[in-house]
Amino acid sequence: MKYEDTWDLEGIFSGGTKSPALQEKVKTIQAEMKAYEETLSTLDGKGDMPLETFLTLLQQRETIGKGLGQSATFIKMWHDAYMNDEHANVVMGQVMKINSEMQKLSNTFTKKLVAISNNNWEALLANEVVKPLAFRLNEIRDQGKRLLSEAEEKLIADLNQDGLAGWSDLYDTVVSIMTIPFTDKIGKTTELSVGQAMNQMYADPDPEVRKQIFENWEVAWANYAPIFTDTINHLAGYRLTLQKAHDRHHHLVEPLEYNRMTKGTLDAMWGAVAKNKQPFLDYLQRKATLLEMDRLGWQDVDAPIALGDFEPTTFTYGEACDFVLEHFESFGPKLTAFTKHALENRWVEAENRPNKRPGGYCTSLPEFEESRIFMTFTGSPSDTSTLAHELGHAFHSHVMKDVPYVNRRYAMNVAETASTFAETIINNATVTNAASTEEKISLLGSKLEGATAMFLNIHARFLFEDAFYTERAEGVVSETRLNELMEAAQKESYGDSLESYHPHFWSSKLHFFIDSVPFYNFPYTFGYLFSLGVYAEYMKQPEGFEEKYIALLQDTGSMEVEALAKKHLNVDITKEDFWVAGIELMVADVDEFLNVTEDIAKK
Question: pTM of the entire structure?
Answer without folding.
Answer: 0.85
